[in-house]
Amino acid sequence: MVLFPMKYLSYFAFISTSLAMVGCDSKAVNYDKGYESAWEGEESPLSFWASKEEKEGYEAGLQDAWIYDTGYSDGYEGEKPEYFNDPLYMDAYKDGKKDKEKRW
């Protein structure tokens, strides 16, 4: 008793492999989508429609955007750096300082 002919086995294997690959990629894609939307200043993803990964990416993006903006502002205003151990903050601090020097 055969459930389906052997010629359909390769189609079944291809479809199941493709679905597995798409399922693995979607978590990273959703995280990146949320992260980028936070950096672009978009509103928070709707809690009902957004995936868990998209929400996590959005929160991480908000945090990083805040750190970058704070570092840039501190560098531009000539304030003392607050977060020496954060590379994103320090890069932004240096960018703000450079922009301030170029302006004058």
What is the element layout, followed by pairings?
Layout: H1 9-39, H2 52-77, H3 87-103
List its salient traits.
3 helices, mainly alpha, 104 residues, 71% helix, elongated
Order of helices and strands: HHH
Cα end-to-end separation: 84 Å
The overall pLDDT average reads 81
SS element count, helices: 3
Helical content band: over 70%
Which regions are unreliable across 5 or more consecutive residues at pLDDT < 50? none
**Strand elements, count:** 0
Largest β-sheet summary = none
Radius of gyration: 23 Å
Overall shape: it is elongated
Structural class: mainly alpha
Q: What kind of oligomer do you see?
A: single chain
How much of the sequence lies in strands comes to under 5%
Q: Could you explain how this protein is built, in words?
A:
This protein has 104 residues and is mostly helical. The protein has a domain at 54-104. The protein has three helices and no strands. Helix 1 runs parallel beside helix 2 (52-77) and helix 2 (52-77) packs across helix 3 (87-103).
